[in-house]
Amino acid sequence: MAQGSVQVTHSGTSRWRRRTGEYSSLAAALEAAGDGDVLTVPAGTYRENLVLVRAVTLRGPDGARGSVRIAPADGVALTVRASATVHDLHLEATDSTSPALLVEDGAPELSGLRVVTRSASGIEVRGGARPTVRRCTVDNAGGVGISVLDGAGGVFEECEVMAAGQTGVAVRGGAHPRLENCRIHHASGAGLSVNGEGSAVEAVGCELYEIKGAGVQVAARATGHLTDCTVHRTSADGVTLDTDAVLTLADCDIHDIPENAVDLRSRSVLTLTRSTVRHFGRNGLSVWDPGTRVDANQCEIHDSTGDYPAVWVSDGATAVLDSTRMHDVPDALFVLDRGSRADVVDCDISQVRNTAVSVSDGATVQLDDCRIREAATGAWFRDHGSGGTLANCTIDGAQTGVIVTKGADPTIEGCTVSSPAEAGFYVSAEGRGTFQGCRVTGSSGFGFHVIDGCRTALTRCRTERCARGGYEFAEGGAGAGDGPTVQDCTSDESRAVQTPAAGAVTGPAVQQVTQTAGLLGNVPAQSPAPDTAAAAEPAVSSRPSDEVLGELDTLVGLESVKREVRSLINMIEVGRRRREAGLKAASVRRHLVFTGSPGTGKTTVARLYGEILASLAVLERGHLVEVSRVDLVGEHIGSTAIRTQEAFDRARGGVLFIDEAYALSPEDSGRDFGKEAIDTLVKLMEDHREAVVVIVAGYTAEMERFLAVNPGVASRFSRTITFGDYAPEELLRIVEQQGEEHEYRLAEGTGEGLLKYFTALPKGPSFGNGRTARQTFEAMVERHAGRVAQLTAPSTDDLSLLYPEDLPELP
User: What keywords sit in the KW lines (predicted)?
Assistant: First the structure.
């Protein structure tokens, strides 16, 4: 039943046909209307299902937008099958199987409509319809905001999807609408979804936000072109492409995305021009699968809020970045997997917390005329098959400029590394690489650091002002058949030293290096580094093994430890004698695990163990190098391998003692760099098994977990020695030893007082065993000094006797 009446003005071409009529229902008015007629509907609620089959105009009263409600009990509120005009109506529907507004044919003009519904779709356009929809709003908590289906088209101008229980705007079945200055927000599915071969969308000046799914989703051979659009505040990815999708984004802004800003898969192609990607939680650009490709030109990717690379290219995908800026991100570009490739031209990469460019698992990159600033690692070629070319690039202010490891083989041409904190170019673990015309200036470490006999080729390279030296070639270096080859390289830190008889001058010089017989013929001689292993570690006095074992025996307690060490030493000594006698000797792995609480003598025993092995000629020097996680793990990828290598080098000929080793493998490791230290250490232990003895130490439970989660580490240690906590009597004996060493004696009753004190002392995680005993002695000496200082003429006993009252209070 209509509220009021419907006024219809018949406006045909003949004057005599013009008339006005009033009808009791909208359906009756529409039945009577002809093409060109105007139906003005009075304010009210109409419970009718309207169908427009003629080119009429249907509108509400002037100045009363939204006062006419079309709200049937079920079905479609308004169906348009002609080139009609509809203005200023309020449509409501509740049928979950039908749309509220259905446009099936013609080129109607719809404006000022407000659709509030819980329908399958708020507005649905299908078939041959080509509507122009202006300034309409859709609030559909039950389904899709706007659906354009089955080859339909049309233009949507300044429309708004205020809420959608599913997708905001869905385009499929070969449909191809155009969206201009539209807003789509608060959708529970994708903001804009384009799906199916032949389906396409063109969007200009649109905004998509507060989306619980992806902002824009293009899939299954669909295409899209977005210009000057903004996608932000989604719950899933910002833009996704899948299965041969093609999308162009020009002058767009994608930001505040908790997942990937843009994700491409399955042969999809994205062209990104003059667009910005920022504030993303995972990857800015995530590119997967063979045939998938992204081309970014004059774009900016910055301000990651997560811990993932800004651009991720894997599984055979391709990325082309031209004149693009990446900054303020954890990592800039990761390319991995065979067949994956990135071509980067004239790009700026800066403020990178970890690695600017990482290449692994057989991937390839080509960087031309790029600038990398303030990155932890400029470029890292990680493993066998990974490579590519860096040409005419600059790397400034990095910890390490370029790292090449594990068989990677890039070509670096005409690149300059300025002011690296650790090394300009670092090659290790069988890395290769060809360096031509490269330059390192102002390094706080080495210019070129090549270790482990890596077959690296250097031609016409130059180093200047490198604190530790321009060139450092470790084992397999000068003259070695498997080391680097060097030709025409120079350094301003060279020292040409010749005999005075030859008329040479000793002093600073620039020395040229030429290739000899295809191998390293000559290297610019470096000034001795002030922190070489020999300078860093004091020489260890050579004592007979019996004398060192005697010192071990004097240690308080540790009876089981002493037995374990003696058993191991006996095995080593007998093995040595068997070999001298021409007999086979059992292989004894000398690396050890020390478990137990702090202060139980682990470091002291490790030092003595090294001396004993040196006395038996098992180790060259027997010195102890003590390190912990902070000494091995850097703040960025790449520096950890360097620090671990340097610690190992300092320990050559002796013992590398890693305290609290379990800290290298925390339970919530994530992307923790401790794993890099472990991997480096395991390889060094294997490659140089006779040069260094490694002892890892820590709490018993934590070390058990450490060995369990790192089987590669566990397999390299022969045995675990457990250091038990000291008993009160043993702690008393340590205090007595401290007193004898410092010429103090315990007065009568003081020993009993100490036993009671150590028995009552809490044995929690902070209990330091021998350290606690020594601290107790120091506290007694301080209290003794405060007491004796009050005496005018203290006697020798006054100055040396410690009384029960000198004991500190229990904590």
Answer: ATP-binding, Nucleotide-binding, Repeat
Question: Measured on CA atoms in the order 14, 16, 17, 23, is the torsion positive or negative?
Answer: positive
User: What is residue 760's predicted lDDT score, i.e. its pLDDT?
Assistant: 82
> Which of 110, 747, 213, 645 minimizes the C-alpha distance to 429?
645
Of the candidates 481, 395, 389, which has an alpha carbon nearest to the alpha carbon of residue 435?
A: 389
CA 588-591-593 angle, 5° bins: 125
Sequence-distant (≥ 6) Cβ neighbours of residue 231 within 8 angstroms: 191, 207, 208, 209, 215, 216, 238, 239, 252, 253, 254, 255, 257
- Run of H or E residues at 230: strand 230-234
Residues 6+ apart with CB under 8 A from 577: none
Which residues of the chain are modeled with pLDDT < 50?
1-4, 10, 12-18, 476-480, 494-539
Question: CA 507: distance to chain centroid?
Answer: 47
Residue 222 near residue 199, CB atoms below 8 Å? yes
Cα 731 from chain centroid? 48
**What are the phi and psi torsion angles at 279 (to 5°)?**
55, 60
Residue 522 corresponds to which amino acid?
A: N
Virtual torsion, Cα 771, 775, 778, 782, nearest 10 deg: 170
559-580 vs 602-615: helix crossing angle, rounded to 10: 20
Instruction: Determine the 3-state secondary structure of 587 from DSSP.
Output: coil
Contact 173, 193 (CB under 8 A): no
* pTM of full prediction above 0.85: no
Q: How would you classify the pairing of strands 6-10 and 19-23? A: antiparallel
Check if the beta carbon of residue 585 is closer than 8 Å to that of residue 671. Answer: no
Max Cα distance, the chain (Å): 139
C-beta of residue 239 within 8 angstroms of C-beta of residue 276: no
- Give the span between the Cα atoms of 341 and 54, in whole angstroms: 58
The amino acid at residue 762 is P
Pairwise CA distance, residues 167 & 153, whole Å: 18
Report whether 367 contacts 337 (CB < 8 A). no
Report the Cα–Cα distance between both ends of the chain, in Å, rounded.
88
Element (H, E) at 118: none
- 488 sits in which H/E element: none
What are the residues facing 720 on neighbouring strands?
593
Distances (CA, A) of 800 to 424, 578, 795: 59, 54, 9
Pairing of strands 6-10, 38-40: antiparallel
24 SS3 class: coil
Predicted pLDDT at 2: 38
Alpha-carbon torsion angle 581, 583, 584, 587, nearest 10? -20
Report the alpha-carbon distance of residue 4 to residue 133 in Å, rounded.
Answer: 28
- Apex 391 CA angle, 387 and 392, nearest 5: 150
User: Rounded to an integer, what distance in angstroms lies between the CA atom of residue 99 and that of residue 75?
Assistant: 8
Q: DSSP letter at 529?
A: P
Residue-level pLDDT at 20: 66
Asked if 378 contacts 399 with a C-beta cutoff of 8 angstroms, the reply is no
In contact, 740 and 783? CB cutoff 8 Å: no
Angle at Cα 698 formed by Cα 697 and Cα 702, nearest 5°? Answer: 130
DSSP-based three-state secondary structure for 608: helix
**pLDDT at site 462:** 96
Contact yes or no for 464/439 (Cβ under 8 A): yes
Predicted confidence at residue 524, as pLDDT, reads: 44
- 315: burial class by Cβ within 10 Å (0-12, 13-18, 19+)? middle
CB under 8 Å to 120, separation ≥6 — which residues?
95, 96, 97, 98, 99, 142, 143, 144, 147
Query: In the structure encoding, which two tokens stand for residue 70, read together?
Result: 């079309």
Question: To the nearest 10°, the Cα dihedral for 14, 16, 20, 21?
Answer: -110
Buried b (16+ CB within 10 A) or exposed e, 59-88: bbeeeebebbbbbbeebbbbbbbbbbbbbb
